[in-house]
Amino acid sequence: MIYRDITDAIRPWLSQDKIIIIKGARRVGKTTILHFLRKEIEESGGQVRYIAADLDFADPAFGDPRLFILRLDEQFGGKPGTVLIDEFQTIPKAGLFLKTLHDQRKDLYRFVISGSSTLELAKNDEFLTGRKKEFILRPFHSRSSSRHDCRNSPCANSRRTISVGSKIMRRCMERRSKPLTPSI
Q1: pTM for the predicted model, two decimal places
Q2: Distance of alpha carbon 39 from alpha carbon 16, whole angstroms
Q3: What pLDDT sits at residue 116?
Q4: What is the pLDDT of residue 18?
């Protein structure tokens, strides 16, 4: 997984009672950021649930915040946790839905959501005023690539092109051709 600088900006907000919203164009890495946060929270001993709203759109819990809250209470066992909702804009009346979840359970749960449709997320802003902290995820750039560790990424064992650009791929291929020297 390629490290993204936005993670450093998001991390301090995970303990606040604000809804974290990650916005960005399609395929810039929003889902990857959520999975990274999930892994980090789990490794630190926290409880976390990842929900792909675009895959679970038929779930009746998305139509009734009370039902969704009951499900979260059951899954977390009444203990604090973090809820990651990917593709948030696919939830009907998403802003009102999230406002209700936050207002009812901000003492227990932290909500981190992502969405690729800025227009759809903008429609929900009025419900989330004062309750959110937004982050814009931009396309991959060279600063993040300087932190990329080729030995732990897909490019370490493959010559296929990765989506983050040929500059990283060239650097990985150069590193692969040189023997790794242990650091002392």
Answers
A1: 0.72
A2: 19
A3: 76
A4: 93
β-strand pairing of 19-24 with 109-115 = parallel
Question: Whats the size of the chain, residue-wise?
Answer: 184
DSSP class per residue in 117-159: -HHHHHHTHHHHTTTEEEEEEPPP-HHHHTT--GGGSGGGG--
Q: Within the chain, which residues score under 70 in pLDDT?
A: 1-3, 57, 117-125, 141-184
Tokens, residue 110: 């932290």
Could you tell me where the beta strands, DSSP code E, fall in the chain? 19-24, 48-52, 81-86, 109-115, 132-137
- Distance (Å, rounded) from C-alpha 147 to C-alpha 159? 20
Lookup: tokens for 121: 């997320």
The number of beta carbons lying within 10 Å of the beta carbon of residue 39 is: 12
108, two tokens = 């227990």
pLDDT at 28: 86
Q: What are phi and psi of 99, to 5 degrees?
A: -60, -45
pLDDT at 182: 42
Contacts of 164 by beta carbon, 8 Å cutoff, 6+ apart: 2, 140, 145, 148
Q: Please, are residues 121 and 21 in contact by the beta-carbon 8 Å criterion?
A: yes
